[in-house]
Amino acid sequence: MAIEYLGLSSLNGPLAVLEGVSGAAYDEIVEMTVNGKEKKLGRIIEVYEDKAVIQVFESTENMALRNTHTRLTGHPMEIGVSVDMLGRTFDGIGNPIDGLGPVLAEKRLDVNGKPLNPVAREYPRNYIRTGISAIDGLTTLIRGQKLPIFSGNGLPHDQLAAQIVMQSSLGDDTDEKFAVVFAAMGVKYDVAEYFERTFRESGVLDHVAMFINLANDPVVERLITPKVALTVAEYLAYEKGMHILVILTDMTSYAEAMREVSSSKGEIPSRKGYPGYLYSELASLYERAGIVAGVNGSVTQIPILTMPGDDITHPIPDLTGYITEGQIVLDRTLHGQSIYPPISVLPSLSRLMKDGIGEGYTREDHQDVANQLFSCYARVGDARALASVIGEDELSPLDKKYLEFGKAFEKRFIGQDPHDNRTVIDTLNIGWELLGLLPREELDRIDTKILDQYYKPA
Questions:
Q1: Is domain 4-76 in CATH 2.130.10.10, yes or no?
Q2: pLDDT digits (tens, 9 = 90+) for 198-225
Q3: In what residue span(s) does the ATPase F1/V1/A1 complex alpha/beta subunit nucleotide-binding domain sit (predicted)?
Q4: Domain 84-351 belongs to what architecture?
């Protein structure tokens, strides 16, 4: 029989302390009744002797020490999951907000997930097509990978996220099921409305499950949103055999919510005021991606984070880089030149790319073309630095060709229309057209047989 506790010992921001508790467990969900009518949910985040510290999901508005009744449920935070969640929009803790009524759950799952046995994991293979050349060609996204996007305030990461949702697929010659789980944390109302309108108008909403936590929603809810989204993704992937792409934006809002709650608990801060367990909390989310042996589905993650002050050494991008398999970096200089998407290809990489491209996956020349484009674009930086010292007119004919290649590469390969959904073959063909601007003897990263087949001087 559930016991109901009358009153609270103290209230501090989103935290409530209950004394005289017996049998309470860490991560247990509690139901709180305010003034005998208003219902709120909370989660036990600390247990000490007969005291329990409760994180209140909704705001603690109207709550007082004497008007709150608390009931322990005996189970952690759970969400009812179903395939019918695709095409629906939910708030940060999984309640429908699209006016279409509740979802009939096929089962209820713990939002904290179950740890995957590393031995049961399969190595990621096969690519996911995003239709964006700078990603598909140079930092290819592989099924089961976690590939973050490092952005900055004012850069078009929201537009890029929406484009990836609209264009991503498993390719043209497959009948495997594919869907997207999209979670937005701490976004403004106009941004949330932009995502929903864009997905609806483009006709992709039927295979997208959206979880929206607004900036004015309780900060504690922000900590639950990615867990709820990943729980739905795992169910669709591992129990329904679907390939799921999870987009989490913005992980900086998640980390700042963690810092705020940690400060309310009086914990000793670590780097930049973030709690010392920031790494393990991020890892507990990022590691919920992958492929399980014997299961057809997969979970692939694209976390998006805005780097405070464009500082890639800030704790959030720094720790994210340790856990994930590469990164895609957005560049403010390219954005200033009206190049979209402003992806800076030199600091971007995909560590699993080599195992999901080439013959049998994309095309046999993919790896060679990517290597050569990276190498040539690095030479462009040297030529530009030299031109800034001695002037462009004084450069050698070869350096001038590299400058020409650099401008064309940024405009035609990196830059593309937001509605331009390129195939991998389109991307590789554009790469060869650009390499044709350079003398053949400069293309030293490509096999001679492949050069003979594809190289055409401009």
A1: no
A2: 999 999 999 999 999 999 998 888 999 9
A3: 131-350
A4: 3-Layer(aba) Sandwich (3.40)
